[in-house]
Task: inverse folding
């Protein structure tokens, strides 16, 4: 295929946010290897059919010639098979860098890797031009995206939707889908804002850590009380939104991209050894769940992604399509407390052999085919929660945050944690109880022993929950529980 003349290539495009583009780049991908092996299969089937026909009609001369041809084709196929597979595996490995770059690019609404070309549907979300997006992808995967040929075509929102529809049908070639709509602003209603702020006793000169920055709601409440805040989020979109929202607080607000499990290292790198208070408002933000492209919601069509950090290596589709059945069942059971975990895992594995499960709605349909809807909760709720927890290692992250967080606090410093489901709340409650016990006792011990982890006292014997006014204003706050601890 000859690329179109370079006049279509817009190297320096005037930024034009909100306009959709399709970009075709020429690439050598694993798909080209599969195409080659399909071509072989087709040729072999055709030869076999011709051979059968010649043998049945008694044309031995032609049958012999065809048999010879088939043998030599088989030989060359087998001879090439191993190098071909190795080539395909290497190509897949190289492509993973490209996929990660495309997934991380907030302008990419969809992409399809073909045998000689890759198509990307791009919407310019910010001041970066098309050329900058393409340069990023090329830098991420120079072996896959070759040369400079590129066809760039602008398209209307309707055409962008048509592009998505066309590629949606080919679920094995489309790897990421998004809505062809302008980017929505970051809107998240802060949960238990007043209660958490009051509990942390912020004030002039105090240094606070907001371990889950999100839209910066809790940070702003702390800043308004005169404190300085170090905010962490693993989602680049949240960091960008919070940075913008809180820029008027100048050098009292610091935004750090990263995981809260690494809070200690992130703060030490900035020269902060300890803090006066920590707020962790766990889970996902409204923009994460409301953006179909992020793949958290079973109510809207999107890629089966669910990563809070789009650069992290494993998304939900990787688990659903590659993990063994027992591992999937285990995830659904452990993190979703899903009673039908085994039946759902079995159905997922049956269905993925027919075609990879790449979208949220397809997974939701598969779950609904096992679990009929009963009551108000959607049958996919628990499974989606479980996959999200597994993809983001949420409980592992929480365990590290609790341990490291407590060691970061000054004496008298407060630790406020807001949870949204029972697994998180249980982990926080147990940790708070453990570190606030002077002594530990076990039936097999003759007498209680001093607790080496005793360093804190629990401020909230019972968790604080949203009041009626907050529940009415923000129904998403309904499962929130705030627990507070003080370092002694
Ligand atoms: C509920 S939102 C926080 C909202 C924020 N308190 C506000 O009022 O705007 C939770 C945020 O924590 C982030 N997050 C969750 N787990 C994280 C982790 N392990 N490390 C860093 N950020 C995390 C999510 O990306 C999300 O933006």
Result:
């Amino acid at each position: 295929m000859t690329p179109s003349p370079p006049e279509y290539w817009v190297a320096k495009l005037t930024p034009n946010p909100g306009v959709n583009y399709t970009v075709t780049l020429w690439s050598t991908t694993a798909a080209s290897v599969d195409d080659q092996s399909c071509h072989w299969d087709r040729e072999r089937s055709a030869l076999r059919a011709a051979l059968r026909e010649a043998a049945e009609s008694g044309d031995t001369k032609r049958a012999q010639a065809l048999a010879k041809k088939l043998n030599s084709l088989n030989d060359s196929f087998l001879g090439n098979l191993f190098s071909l597979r190795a080539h395909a595996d290497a190509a897949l490995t190289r492509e993973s860098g490209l996929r990660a770059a495309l997934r991380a690019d907030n302008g990419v609404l969809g992409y399809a890797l073909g045998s000689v070309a890759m198509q990307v549907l791009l919407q310019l979300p910010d001041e970066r031009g098309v050329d900058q997006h393409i340069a990023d992808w090329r830098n991420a995967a120079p072996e896959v995206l070759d040369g400079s040929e590129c066809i760039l075509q602008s398209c209307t929102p309707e055409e962008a939707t048509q592009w998505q529809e066309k590629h949606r049908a080919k679920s094995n070639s489309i790897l990421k889908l998004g809505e062809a709509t302008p980017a929505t602003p970051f809107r998240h209603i802060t949960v238990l804002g007043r209660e958490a702020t009051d509990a942390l006793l912020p004030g002039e000169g105090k240094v606070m850590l907001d371990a889950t920055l999100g839209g910066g709601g809790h940070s702003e409440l702390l800043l308004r009380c005169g404190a300085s805040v170090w905010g962490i989020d693993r989602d680049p979109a949240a960091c960008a939104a919070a940075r913008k929202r809180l820029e008027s607080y100048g050098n009292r607000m610091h935004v750090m991209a990263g995981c809260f499990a690494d809070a200690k290292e992130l703060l030490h790198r900035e020269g902060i050894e300890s803090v006066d208070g920590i707020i962790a408002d766990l889970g996902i933000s409204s923009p994460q769940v409301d953006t179909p492209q992020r793949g958290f919601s079973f109510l809207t069509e999107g890629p089966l992604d669910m990563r809070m950090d789009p650069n992290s290596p494993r998304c939900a589709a990787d688990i659903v399509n590659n993990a063994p059945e027992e591992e999937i069942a285990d995830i659904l059971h452990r993190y979703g407390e899903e009673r039908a975990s085994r039946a759902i895992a079995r159905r997922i594995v049956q269905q993925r052999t027919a075609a990879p499960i790449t979208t949220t709605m397809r997974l939701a349909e598969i779950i609904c085919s096992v679990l009929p809807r009963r009551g108000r909760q959607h049958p996919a709720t628990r499974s989606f929660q479980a996959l999200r927890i597994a993809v983001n290692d949420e409980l592992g992250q929480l365990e590290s945050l609790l341990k490291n967080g407590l060691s970061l606090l000054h004496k008298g410093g407060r630790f406020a944690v807001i949870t949204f489901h029972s697994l998180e709340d249980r982990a926080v409650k147990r940790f708070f109880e453990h570190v606030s016990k002077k002594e530990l006792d076990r039936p097999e011990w003759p007498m209680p022993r001093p607790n080496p982890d005793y360093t804190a006292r629990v401020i909230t014997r019972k968790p604080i929950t949203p009041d009626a006014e907050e529940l009415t204003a923000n129904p998403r706050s309904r499962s929130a529980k705030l627990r507070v601890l003080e370092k002694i």
